[in-house]
Amino acid sequence: MHGAHPALTACRFAGMELRNRFALASMTRVSATEDGRAVPEMAEYYETFAEGGFGLLITEGTYTDTAFSQGYLHQPGIADEAQAAAWRPVVDRVHAAGARVVLQLMHAGAVAQANRFRDRTVGPSAVRPLGEQLTKYRGSGRWPVPLEMTRRQIAEAVQAFAAAAARARDAGFDGVEIHAANGYLLDQFLTPYTNLRTDEYGGGAEGRSRLVREVTAEVKGATGPGFTVGVRFSHGKVNNPSWRWPGGDAEARAVFTAAAAAGADYLHLAGRGRDWSPHGPTFPGLARAVTGLPVIANGGLHQDAVARRILDERHADVLAIGRAALANPDLPRRVAAGTVRTPFDPRLIEPLATLANARSHANA
C-alpha cells in the first residue's frame, strides 16, 4: 500500500478552500433548455458529484453572449439575467453538499454547430475547421467557413466574457474558468493554422495570445477581488485531438505568462493519458514552474499511480476527473475507502452526451 491518496488532503486553491484535491472536469452535456437555461436535472447532476465527495466542480462550457458564442443546441448560457438565475439552484445545491463550483465561460467561435442568435460562425480567420461536426452534440456534416472577426467583434466578445463573469459572481459561483482550450475561439486565436491574421491579434505567440490576455484582464476587472478566475489550455482540440503546440515549451511559456500577467488565479491544463511519461516535465508542471500559479491537471488522472506522481512531484495542485467521474460520481469516497471503481461505459455519452442518455444507460 502507498498510504493515503494525496488527493484526499484539503487545500486552499486559488482563493478557494477545498475539502480535497479532486475536481470534476468540465464536460459538455447539452441538456439545458432551448433558450440556454439550466434545468432541475442539471442541479441534480452537479449535486451528485458534490455529494460524492468532489472538492471542486467545473461546469460545462457556458456561452457568454447573444451573438456568436453559442456552440451547441441545448448548451447552457449566462448571457442574460434569466440564464444566470437558472444557475442559482445548481450553485446552492453544490454548496449545500460541501463543494466549491466555478462556471466555465466558453465562446465556440468557428466550431459552433448551432447558434440560435446567428446563422454564421466567426473565427480569427476565414479558415474552415478540420474534420466534421460532433454527432454526440447533435452536429453533422462539415464545419462552415467562419467569418474573420473584426476588431469591433473581438472587443464585443471580450466585454461579453466580462459581463458573463459578473453574472456568474452574482449567481453565487466561487469563480469562473475562461475556456482557452480544445479548439474553441480563444484557442483558435492561439493556433497558427486557424489564426492567419496580420494585425495585433496574429503573428507570433505574443500576438496570438493577445485575446487571452484581454479576456482575462477584463474578467478580473469586472468581478473584483475575492472571486477566482482561472484559464484552461490544452494541446488537443475537439476536432484535432493529436495537435501539439508547434513552439513547444517556449510557446507554452509565452502563453502561460500572458494569462498570469493578465491576472489569472489558476491555470487548468488538459491533456490525455499518454501525456504523462514516467519521468521528466509535464505540461501542467511547466505552467506551475513558469507562473507560480496553482494548477489543475486533467486527462487520465483516474489512474492512481499517475495521480500520485502529479501531486507528489508538485506538477499540479488539483486533479480534474472526467469520464471516470461519470462512471463513479462518488470517486473521492471510493478512493478514500479503497473500494472498486466502475469502468467507464462509452454509452454514457453516446450517441448523445446528454443527461437523459446517461441516465438511461446508468439504469439499464
The CATH architecture assignment turns out to be Alpha-Beta Barrel
Largest sheet: 8 strands, parallel, barrel
* CATH level-four homologous superfamily name: Aldolase class I
Poorly predicted runs? none
Strand order of the largest sheet: 3-4-5-8-9-10-11-12
CATH class: Alpha Beta
Structure write-up:
- The chain has 364 residues and is an alpha/beta fold.
- It has one domain: Aldolase class I (TIM Barrel).
- The protein is built from 12 helices and 12 strands.
- The strands form 3 sheets. An 8-stranded parallel beta barrel has the order 3-4-5-8-9-10-11-12, surrounded by 7 helices.
- Helix 9 (304-312) links the parallel strand 11 (295-298) and strand 12 (318-321).
- Helix 1 (40-51) runs parallel beside helix 2, helix 3 (151-170) packs parallel to helix 6 and helix 6 runs parallel beside helix 7 (248-261).
- It is globular and about 55 Å long.
At a glance:
This protein is of the alpha/beta class and 364 residues long. The chain has a single domain, classed as Alpha-Beta Barrel (TIM Barrel), CATH 3.20.20.70. The chain has 12 helices and 12 strands.
